Amino acid sequence: MNQRQLDIFNAIIDCGTLTGAAQTLRTSQPTVSRTLSALEIELGFSLFERQKGRVTATPEGIALYEEMQRVYTGIGRLTAFAKRVRAKKDGEINISVTPALALTFIPEVLRRFQEKHPTFKAVISVRAPSIIFNKLRNGTTDIAFSNSMISSGDVFDIPLTEAQFVCAIPKGHPLSEKDIIYPSDLGGENFIMLHPEKSFNWSGHEKLINAMPVKPNIVFSTQRSATAYGMVAQGIGVSVLEPFSARFWEKHDVVIKPFQPALT
User: Fold this and answer.
1) What residue ranges define each of the domains in the chain, with the CATH number in brackets?
2) pTM of the complete model
3) DSSP class of residue 46?
């Protein structure tokens, strides 16, 4: 097998027709057909069943395709590793952070670190926790700051802090006059809920709402605190959110108050 044969095989799988593969690879349909036939002869088994201009992968073809994806993934990891080696020679590392930490927390950390290490360089990627976990596993990030997650054997998980959620309230709202917000204060209020995503189910928030005798009016839900903070700033609801972005949003018509009992 050579690279050209594999590229054509891969294109046929993706397009479902020899003509489509030829157009994708900017070659002729007869060339694609001849290359496929030569590959099948070399392998000793059929890769596709031909039916009315379309092709369907045989079980053997599917198995070969899946193995190719594993090989391509491995090549991708090697390429990423080589890039990291080159970057580290210049003192550069790859850092992944969640959106909640990207606004104020990480910039402050980087400033403090650079004061001690003036030549320090970094590429900052802002991703969802599930994507960050995959980047750690496949080696495309060096260090990550995220919510707690299940760690595999080759990822070291170092707890940094246990953060308490705060209540975010629109400026001028009656609740902004209170020193501490309790669940009973939220009864009947327009509320912006954090809804589940792949990595986290925000079960503490769900239990809080379910236990309230008078429930808030959940008008919007989102999996991103930055979106919820933005909604609060627009005056369309209150919310219970992570504290890392609070300093930023206090400058944008959001009042931050402690919330009890503590959600962490």
Assistant:
1) 3-70 (1.10.10.10), 90-145 (3.40.190.10), 166-258 (3.40.190.10)
2) 0.61
3) -
